[in-house]
Amino acid sequence: MNHHGAQMMRHWEAERPSEFAELEEVEEHFTQMGEEIAEQVELRARGLVGTVPPEEGYLARLQRLNTARLAAEGDVVREFLMTELPQAP
Asked: Which of 7, 13, 39, 86 measures 20 to 30 Å from 23, CA to CA?
């Protein structure tokens, strides 16, 4: 299980204990969710990276790539948390 899956598992344990308790394949569920999040982060980060300026140095490139990844990760994890919240009655 990757860190995204572990993060979601902790979230469910804390915020959705009854639904968490009903899961039969806990490891499998959060492993799959973590993999899906990682795939979405990768796709979103690629879209945010933009074009490489010809004069861009190593540190500027590293900063641009890291910024894109962090922004993508924040967006995707937030979306998963929002869609995973239980519906109000």
From this structure: 39
Q: Under 8 Å CB-to-CB from 5, ≥6 apart: which residues?
A: 30, 31, 32, 33, 34, 35, 37
> Residues 6 or more apart from 89 whose CB is under 8 A from it?
none
Structural domain spans, the chain: 3-83
Q: Is 0.70 topped by the overall pTM? A: yes
Average of per-residue pLDDT across 50-59: 90
Q: Which residues make Cβ contacts (< 8 Å) with residue 80, sequence separation at least 6?
A: 8, 33, 37
The pLDDT assigned to 52 comes to: 86
